[in-house]
Amino acid sequence: EERRALQAPVKRLEKKIAALRGKRDKLEEKEAKVAGEIKTMRAEIAEKKRESAALGKKMKKQQEEMRELKKRANTLRKHVTKLEKLVANLSGKVEQLRDMRQDIFR
């Protein structure tokens, strides 16, 4: 008689234990899934950081190339200015020589 009286609460407790074990298993599955997602996200973040660093290096290189091109352009501009002065000077001398020649042949 006592045994039967104790069996009902024991069965209820066993059902509760089984239900709690089921919940625990589901939570463990969710935890594993979330851990996998976190791992994937970390990998994606690391990849983005690498891409960002590569872009940074590329931009730095392009900026350096731009500086070099600007330097070359300035140098060429200076050379062109010098050549223009020389041409003007020579044109003036050519005019002087023409005038002298005309004076001689008159």
Pick out its properties.
106 residues, single chain, rod-shaped, mainly alpha
Structure explained in plain terms:
This protein is mainly α and 106 residues long. The longest helix is centred in the middle third of the chain and has 104 residues. The N and C termini lie far apart (155 Å).
N/C terminus separation: 155 Å
The chain-level mean pLDDT equals: 95
Number of helices: 1
Radius of gyration: 45 Å
Produce a short descriptive summary.
The chain is mostly helical and 106 residues long. Helix content is 98%, strand content 0%. The N and C termini lie far apart (155 Å).
Q: Topology of this structure?
A:
Layout (H helix, E strand, L loop, with lengths): L1 H104 L1
